[in-house]
Amino acid sequence: MPTYNEADNIERTVGQVLAACPQARVLVVDDASPDGTGRLADRLRAQDERVNVIHRQGARGLGPAYLAGFAWGLERGFEVICEMDMDGSHRAQDLPRLLAVLEERPQVALVIGSRRVRGGTTVGWPWYRDVISRAGSWYARHALDIRVRDVTAGFRAYRSWALRGADFERVESSGYVFQIDMLRRVLDQGGIVVEVPIVFVERTLGSSKMSPSIVAEAMLRVTAWGWDRVRRGL
Q1: Which residue would you say has higher pLDDT here, 180 or 210?
Q2: What pLDDT shows up at residue 61?
């Protein structure tokens, strides 16, 4: 769970995750949050051995934070590595349903908590955020010939072998397009991806990290990947 200025949410969210999945370990990857999120994470670690913390210097981006978390989990031999937002948008009560798919279907490489399949929805989102999300998913699906509906979803459960096969250490994406990058890599290696419907709840505390530069990065990278597919005749 990457964090930057999530002091208002971290204690509640971590507690909810551990209550929903007592067998889980939580890794907080904090980018030197000025609001003291890192200090709160350290306090939680001192209180519960299931909580772990990585401190990074400066706001270095969402993608690199996830990559650091993936590497940490693989080094310690975890067979399943999940990612979630710390702001409460991803409900902890939905996490066991994602994990159940991996438990029941050993061939599945990645499970996505999806807002865009039947039964999935968003609550409290302003209309323009929904439009941006839907338009971005539509564009990425068509440019990259992806059948997954919610390509930018950040609520995921990966098999460790899927992460290794995706060569994740070579990923350079920083913002939300990181999710599309990882998805296409899993699919390119023949991985099976399953979407599980979730309710995505707009944060009530703190501020969103979405910015025009993040949207621009997504458009540029997806367009480049799409043209590369055309060039290779795929």
Answers
A1: 180
A2: 81
